[in-house]
Structures are given as structure tokens and as C-alpha cells.
Design brief:
The chain is mainly alpha-helical. The chain is built from 14 helices and no strands.
């Protein structure tokens, strides 16, 4: 859910402008993990077609090796290894990208006043030139938009902040999310020693990670977490447009839809999705910190108490 919210933030920003994986184990341990995953994959029996090809792809097998290496290297039970692997990936890969996204967004927002002034001057110049050359209103609008795009592009190059760079997080995080999900699915359904370990690697109400959570606690927690992420994101949108409201409602529906989906997949996948959402939400809150903004040398925030303001806005919207 953090992935799609980040993508919408990038799209909204563009519309406003234009209206580790490191090694966790020793080489010997990595080799052992790799051989065990290959052995499991050789009997996976995944169906053909695009899904079978995706589930049997190199990135998915790389994620399988990573997960097995984490579990073997730490000696932790599988449920805790999945949580630890999720925290590690989100912290060492996606968190730096999220901070970079924040920097790009801040730079683009800082350009808005300059772009607005530039557009006013350009509109006047195009109007004068249009009268001299006898342009129609349509020709004048075309010339205005063409030259404004060129000038704004030059500003992006000058400040090294093209809005597309803010979407880098999505293009990294989404494939990681899919690959890790399919890796856990492969490890959970393949009849092998790894599947037997996962079957005994759960805890509390989900002792078997290869079976769906019959209590629906994990799926419901996932849905509530994703809904919370969407609602917190919506509080940032002051005077949202009709399209933005439609997108937010779509995300709300998707969050609810994820509940039955998570209830139909192995608990290992539902646990990963929940951990990923929780870590992503915590990182989102962390990046609101004034200390983090000063460290990243971002423009001064409107408030030095962002968390108190966020809580107040949430209570005002939903409890009053």
C-alpha cells in the first residue's frame, strides 16, 4: 500500500507542476541455501504461462536464497526471520530511496513560485508575439505550453530534480514486493525440507506458515494497516480534486479487498505483507520528523510538531 500511495504522490506532484541487498551469510552458508532452494524449485510444479514464468524467475529465486540465508544465518524461527528480512530490506533499500524521493519533492515544490512567475512573464511575451504575428488563440496556447515545458525542463535540469526521479522508489519497491511474495509462496507450497520448516516455523495463532490464517487476524490487521496508511495520506491533501478523491476511494477499496486475498494465501505471505506495511508506515512517520528534515537539508516545515498536528487532524476528521 505504501508503494501505490508513493506512486500517487509522484503523479500528483507532476500534475501540480504541469497542471543492501547485502550478503547475510558466509559463502558456504549462501551456497547451502542456494542448493536447498534449487532443490525445492526443481519440484515446484508451478503452472505454465506468465505466472509460472514469473514465479520461476531469477529475481524470485534470488529472494528465496536471501530468505533462507537470513533464517540459517540467524537461527531464528521462520516467522521472526521473515519479519527481520522485511525490516532489513525496507530499512537499507527503500528507506534511503524514500528519503531521496522526499528531497526531490521538496526541490520541485520550492520551484513552484519561480515557475508561477515564469509562466506569467511567458504568457505576456506570447501574447505580444501573437499579436505581432497574427496568431489565433489556439496557436498562442500551443506556443505558451510548448515554451513553458521547455523552460520548466531547464529548471529541473538546473536543480537536478525532475519529478520522475521521485518515482524511483516505486520502480524498486514494487518488484521487490512481488518477488519476495512469490518467493515465500514457492517456499510454502513446494514439498521439501524447507516447506516442513515453514510448517513448523509459525507462532501464536498461525503456527503453520504454509497454511492460510484461519482466524483472519493477519488479513484483518493488514487491511486495517493499509486503511490507516491511506487515511493518513489523505490528511496531507488539502482541497483534494475530484480525481484525487476518486483515487483515494480506490485505495480504500483495494485495502479492503486485500483482506480476503491475504486470507487465501499462506500465512508466510500474509505475515510479510503485514510487516512490510507496518515498516513502511513507520518510515513514513519517521520522514515527517523535523530532525530528519534538517538532516536532509529540506526547507523548513510548516510545523515543528508534525505528529501532534497529524493526530489532531485525524481526530478532528473521524471523531468530531
Amino acid at each position: 500500500m505504501i508503494v501505490v500511495v508513493g506512486l500517487v504522490r509522484c503523479r500528483v506532484l507532476q500534475s501540480r507542476v504541469h497542471q543492501f541487498l547485502g550478503r547475510w551469510a558466509s559463502p558456504a552458508l549462501t551456497c547451502t541455501a542456494d542448493s536447498r532452494v534449487r532443490a525445492a524449485s526443481s519440484v515446484s510444479g508451478t503452472s505454465g504461462g506468465w505466472y509460472g514464468g514469473l514465479a520461476d524467475s531469477a529475481p524470485v529465486h534470488l529472494c528465496e536464497n536471501f530468505l533462507v540465508s537470513v533464517q540459517q544465518g540467524t537461527g531464528l524461527p521462520w516467522w521472526l526471520s521473515i519479519a527481520m528480512a522485511t525490516v532489513s530490506i525496507r530499512t537499507f533499500i527503500t528507506l534511503p530511496l524514500a528519503a531521496y524521493q522526499l528531497i526531490i519533492i521538496a526541490k520541485v515544490e520550492a520551484l513552484q513560485a519561480e515557475i508561477s512567475e515564469l509562466a506569467k512573464r511567458l504568457r505576456y511575451e506570447v501574447s505580444v508575439r501573437g499579436r505581432e504575428r497574427g496568431w489565433t488563440d489556439k496557436q498562442s496556447r500551443i506556443q505558451f505550453k510548448k515554451n513553458l515545458r521547455r523552460l520548466v525542463s531547464q529548471l529541473y535540469i538546473r536543480d537536478n530534480c525532475h519529478p520522475f526521479k521521485a518515482s524511483l522508489l516505486v520502480w524498486v519497491q514494487l518488484p521487490l514486493w512481488v518477488s519476495l511474495s512469490l518467493a515465500l509462496r514457492n517456499l510454502s507450497v513446494v514439498q521439501s525440507a524447507l516447506q516442513r520448516e515453514l510448517a513448523a516455523g509459525g507462532t501464536l495463532w498461525f503456527p503453520d506458515l504454509t497454511l492460510p490464517d484461519s482466524t483472519w487476524i493477519l488479513p484483518v490487521c493488514l487491511g486495517l494497516t493499509n486503511l490507516l496508511i491511506v487515511e493518513v495520506f489523505s490528511l496531507q491533501r488539502v482541497g483534494a480534486s475530484r480525481f484525487q478523491k476518486l483515487v483515494l476511494n480506490g485505495f480504500r477499496g483495494f485495502s479492503v479487498l486485500m483482506i480476503p486475498i491475504a486470507a487465501s494465501v499462506p500465512s508466510s505471505m500474509a505475515l510479510y505483507w503485514l510487516c512490510s506495511s507496518l515498516v513502511g508506515f513507520s518510515h513514513n512517520l519517521l520522514l515527517r520528523s523535523p530532525t530528519v528534515h534538517r538532516t536532509l537539508r529540506l526547507p523548513a516545515q510548516r510545523s515543528e510538531t508534525p505528529y501532534r498536528d497529524l493526530l489532531s487532524s485525524f481526530i478532528k476528521k473521524y471523531w468530531k
